[in-house]
Amino acid sequence: MQSLVKILIPRQLFMLLILSTGLLNHVILIPNLLTAAGRDSWLSVLLVYPIAIFFSWLIYFIVKKSPKEGLFSLMKQRLGRVFSTILFIPMMLFLLTSCYLTLRDLMIWLSAYFLADAPIFMINIILISVCFLVTLSGIKAMAIASGFLLPIVMLLGFFIAFTNIHHKDPSLLFPVLAEGYAPLMKGAIYGLAGLLEIYVVILLQPYSQEPIKFRQMFVLLLILTGLILGPLSAAIMEFGPTDAVNFRYPAYEQWRILSIGEYISNLDFFALYQWLSGALIRVGLFMYLLCAFFTSKKQPYRLNPKLVVVMYLLLFGLMMIKVETFYFYSAVYDYFLPACMVFFLVQILFSVVLVLVFNKKGDHHGKNSKVETTS
User: Fold this and answer.
1) What is the pTM of this model?
2) Are 6 and 208 spatial neighbours (Cβ–Cβ below 8 Å)?
3) What is the pLDDT of residues 192-221, one digit of tens each?
4) What span, in angstroms and rounded, lies between the C-alpha atoms of 72 and 291?
5) What CATH architecture is 10-374?
6) Which site among 34, 67, 253, 367 is 20 to 30 Å from 3 CA-CA?
7) Where are the domains of the chain?
8) What is the DSSP string of 238-307?
């Protein structure tokens, strides 16, 4: 990544992450948290927040100790192309799998609520074509688009939160730990799976004009936690812990019950704006980062179009494989999210060890060079 020209300020970088990771936390994660912990799911999020702060500090440490080109560029320089590529494979699999799950979940939601009569093939073609154009436009265009999309998405989030306040019964959040500590600990797994995705900051570091600061990481983590905690607690307060668990999209159901007076209702099309904004940026960004692993020499943030076409054809092929909705959601709950939690924990700790080893060897090499010069 030595040829990269820095084009993003940290604020743009974090807006990208809030839109992309926020979709995971706001849409995909909440129903799985409710399934795992029920009424105590909101408490699980509070439980893992201090743990996530510690790991966000470790991520900041990795970014601080890495060169401007980023940790993965450093790994390629120190470990060689073959061995570093082997270490890149888990991250590449995560990016590709996340893109597939995001598109599959979006397609199921669109087919169920908005495009029931539309062919699945047509929905796939449209979604993947738009994501392809987003990736091909480059990371700067995505950052600029996020600057326009995110404020509206957040305003709509506050709008639904305050408009539905008369439906909320805070007493439904209690009593806590009615079924013991097991649901709480189970929910913590899913909470960490969403919050630890801030590891993607390390992938975006090479594109940042300025050094990333810990207080920026702290604010980012706080916002991502709020994106889980807000609609999660609202779903329990509005529908009760039993009905909330039965909803596939609790955040969307909050839009469906929205009404203002006698004549204003059915405003759930605003949810479509939120979902599409997050999904298109998430898939476009993750596919961009995935293609970046295969690009050794980049022009200013432009990927090889042929490479992007090949990766999207692979994604399209995965999307065309017929998967039953029940088995898809079961796989996300039983395998993908727990695996993400383990993956990020291991990846963060492994990255810290690599940074410490590389810096120690660098200092040792510098001292030896200084001794040889003086002698």
Assistant:
1) 0.93
2) yes
3) 999 999 999 999 998 888 899 999 999 999
4) 14
5) Up-down Bundle (1.20)
6) 367
7) 10-374
8) HHHHHHHHH-S-HHHHHHHT-EETTTEE--THHHHHHHHHHHHHHHHHHHHHHHHHT-SS-BTTB--HHH
